[in-house]
Amino acid sequence: MELKNAMAGTLESGDILIQIAPSDVDGLHIELDSTVAYQFGEQIKKVIINTLTELGITKANVKATDKGALDCTIKARVTAAAVRSTGVDVWA
User: Fold this and answer.
1) CA nearest 55: which of 89, 16, 23, 26?
2) How far is Cα 27 from Cα 24, in angstroms, rounded to an integer?
3) Would you give the distance in Å from CA 68 to the centre of its chain?
4) Quick one: angle between helices 37-54 and 71-86, nearest 10?
5) What are the average pLDDT values for consecutive 10-residue runs of the chain, which has 92 residues?
6) Cβ(52)–Cβ(37) under 8 Å?
7) pLDDT at position 91, please?
8) What residues form DSSP beta bridges with 31?
9) How many CB atoms lie within 10 A of CB 59?
10) Which residues does 19 contact at the CB level (< 8 Å), separation at least 6?
11) Nearest-CA neighbor of 6 among 67, 88, 91, 92?
12) Other CB atoms closer than 10 Å to residue 20's CB: what's the count?
């Protein structure tokens, strides 16, 4: 699946900014910046990976800047960024 640079979310408290970019290498490469990474970093990455995989994206660079987002917010932001990146509307 061809990707272009896209983002979704904000840097407000309780939100997460997701940036997706094409990658030259296989796999999902996630860069996480979070004040709660020590406690919840693995869970945040898991939600990002699972959401992208469910959407058929298996090759991308993802930068996530978390400000304490819940899993449902993370999933929504990843989905929105993926839709913008691929042009495929998953809600139709």
Assistant:
1) 89
2) 9
3) 14
4) 40
5) 94 97 96 95 98 96 97 98 94 75
6) no
7) 78
8) 63
9) 15
10) 5, 6, 7, 62, 63, 64, 81
11) 88
12) 26
